[in-house]
Amino acid sequence: YSSFFLIQAPRLWPFSWWSPPKKLRTEEEKKRILILMSDTGGGHRASAQALKAGFEELYGDAYKIVPVRVLRQRIRNGLQKAINFATVVTDLTRCHNTWYYHRVDRCFVATEASKRQALDMGLKEDQIRLYGLPIRPAFSRKYPPKEKLRKSLQMDPRKPAILLVGGGEGMGPVERTVEALSKVLDVEFQLVVVCGRNHKLVERLKRREYPAGMQVHVKGFVDNMPEFMFASDIMITKAGPGTISEALICGLPMILNAYIPCQEEANIPYVVENEVGLFERNPHKVALIVKGWLGDQAGQLRAMAQRCRKLGQPDALFNIVRELSSMVAA
């Protein structure tokens, strides 16, 4: 899936985030950005919201996000000038060919595989930019060391931490994975379970009894996911491209336990072949992998964390935003 950007605007005043302008811009003086996306899942919204946040962080009130209905009315009345057109591809590897339109002004892709597909579809080298996926600005910030961060999250600073993510709707084999971890692991550890908006799952997990050495933190929908990811040692999640990109930035090895057929399927070999994680559906086998990583395979876990950081692209969002800004006529 992808997000589309159409850009047209009047002149931009000199501006930097650390030096705000002396007076606010009028509506006519702001650059106008139209974000089009398919609102069919959390990943779609996350990429669009990340880019909006990137513009706000870099340029403050220099830009205005334009509602679709406003542009539609301008086009109907013949008032809309020519608009620069860019595509931000938010799949990690191959995606549907229709996202690669040969007349686009700029096409932003996340990996070499996406770039090759764009070239195969007729785009030219100078139309393509390989920057990575646009991830929320919070993931590019500096955080305290892991032990200090855990204390601030009311976690044990010394116990290894596993992050189990069920997505915004708390879907997937979350309960069975929690049960498998409680039975298989024979070391002291802590588990953070993010259930999203699945309130019933939150209540069920909070009512469970756990072994003495297992500390469980059950969360619903959280708005500080970067902190939990930077504080963890292992993440168990489905193969969403945004979550994978976030984990790479955080240096967080992952076990992928589910995927949306076709749409997320190609993300699995990307993770496995780059040796930053594994794919396993079976909760018991997932628990065995975790046991090994926290035991005699700890060196493998450390090496994966290093590869994650090397592969992660924390500057992708701001590189894309700067390029989009440069496309707007002065």
From TrEMBL:
BP-aspect Gene Ontology terms: glycolipid biosynthetic process
Family matches, as InterPro entries: Diacylglyc_glucosyltr_N, Glyco_trans_28_C, Glycosyltransf_28_UgtP
Limits of the Diacylglycerol glucosyltransferase N-terminal domain: 66-135
Subcellular localization, as worded in the UniProt entry: Plastid, Chloroplast membrane
Pfam families xrefs: Glyco_tran_28_C, MGDG_synth
Keywords for this protein: Glycosyltransferase, Transferase
Keyword Nuclease in annotation: no
GO cellular component: chloroplast membrane
Organism domain of life: Eukaryota
All copies of domain Glycosyl transferase family 28 C-terminal, residue ranges: 162-263
GO MF, one annotated term: 1,2-diacylglycerol 3-beta-galactosyltransferase activity
EC numbers: 2.4.1.46
Family statement drawn from the similarity comment of this UniProt entry: Belongs to the glycosyltransferase 28 family.
Protein name: monogalactosyldiacylglycerol synthase
